[in-house]
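anyone seen this seq b4? input:
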Amino acid sequence: MRVLIIALVALFVVVAVLLIYFTRMPGNSFSGPAIPSTAEEKQLADSLKRHVTVLASDIGERNTEKLQALNQAADYISLQLASFGCAPQVQEFSAAGKQVKNIHCELKGSSKPDELVVVGAHYDSVVGTPGADDNASGIAALLEIVRMSRDRKPARSVQFVFFANEEPPFFQTPEMGSFVYAKSLRSANRSVHAMLSLETIGFYSDAPNSQHYPAEIAALYPSTGNFIAFAANTGSATSLRHVVNTFRRAAQFPSEGGAVPESVPGVGWSDHWSFWQHGYLGVMVTDTAIYRNPHYHMPTDTAEKLDYDRTARVTMGLVHVLEELAGH
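predicted toks r here
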């Protein structure tokens, strides 16, 4: 009996240690009253709003059922990248008998050019929605990250990728844009040091009980949806912890993180999943979408619903994360 008790205690300790490692991130999440935006952050918020308005309001629903709009979004992204001095490249592929494209540009690494850091977001929206939060918010942030990073000289090469076809019916299939892209990197035997997927990052709430979770992790995190979340599978835990720690040191903004099994609903619901399928590490940056935003995948996911001041502060923090991941 004594041996059994000792074994159970040891098992409990191991489980507790693993739970802490996978769900309690290093550093301290920002708390307290919001700090007023700087002039730079205000300007950034205006730029984010402009991008989201073009994508979600001027162009609107964009997917293979609205192919012209999807191509208009791709053209807008390419024009913005060119204006930032980051030459856009196109990866065309066929999906459901239609030609679609991933768009990417690259900052060449100085001392480790063969090691890649990939930052990506999908520019399509689900059928029936203009997709302001999902995922014009991620595209807007990624465009501004390119702009703010264009003059940096990273050690590792950085690829900024704008994916097609994240949404159904292509979600988690080989015709998902990020799957096509990750497969091409694996086929070329490219080394990916880290991958960040920017997925629905523009919706925040200070209301009590505005944040929800899958049942498996509901007891571990706050009930107010005023933070940015970082999520990964357990295989990407080390990368996740590094990302969260860097964000917390750089950004005065609440943050949470967790590396959980892929079976937990939501943890693999974006383009980082495609990188997992090809043996790469991947981390999602998200406002948690369906677990917070009542307009998720609805016609009401419109530009005026988003909080651009908070999204700007998150975006600034991600610039520092990217700088750390890419090296100096």
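Confidence is low (pLDDT under 50) at residues 6-18. Strands lie at 89-95, 98-107, 112-122, 156-163, 191-199, 228-232, 255-259, 283-286. kinda curious what u guys think
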